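Design review, sub-item: ligand-bound model
Attendees: FS, YL, KQ
YL presented the inputs for the manganese (II) ion complex:
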Amino acid sequence: MIDLHCHIDLYPDPAAVVRAVNDRGLYVLSVTTTPRAFPVMKRMIKEAPRIRLGLGLHPELVAQRHSEVDLFPALLAETDYVGEVGIDGSPPHRGSLDLQEQTFRKILMHCSDRGGRVLSIHSRGAAGKVLDCLEAYPNSGAAVLHWFSGSPKELARAVDLGAWFSVGPAMLRSDRGRNLVGRMPQQRVLTETDGPFAQEGGRPLYPWDVTSAEAALAEMWGFDAKSTRDVLKQNLARLSTTHRGAKVLSE
Ligand code: MN
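KQ shared the predicted structure:
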């Protein structure tokens, strides 16, 4: 099982989640919301061979913490993964849109300078802007659009730009979300939970809850459970080798 976007550091007991992920043999990309969280979390996953850590600066925090983007050049040397980064155009964050875009562009530039990274990208209410930025930095790495909620036209543009997609239980529950997932190339789809932010039945999702996303994908694709997992695992292997220098997550 693969959870390509969750926030292990934000659960009440992160160490217990790391242990449970290890015990279950899950592949996880744990994203961070500020660069300051990166070194703390890095120590916690030292002995977790299947957990990768993303260096992030969440767009919703950019208004307060944009200066932390200056920590990226040094910390990028420590990871092949970047996230959560991106732009949020929803009403509470519109005031910082310009600053968010500048910050995202700086991050993409740093990634380009370092030979590219795998990026887990937030694009709520700002799909067009995010795609403009990705187009401007074609060497920034492999872009994975997490919980994509743009229009079908924006989705088609993202596909043309070579983007990947991580989709979770909440997205697959809605008709709109399922419609978008149905338009994504199967070879570029991965599973995520976005826990603990995303919830199901009033409780936060945990990485192993990707099973419900797998089941929804199996139904959409017309595959059995095993074939669905095989496709997702092959996708992860390909994503991990998409750009020069990335270490393979799924060995
Ligand atoms: Mn998230």
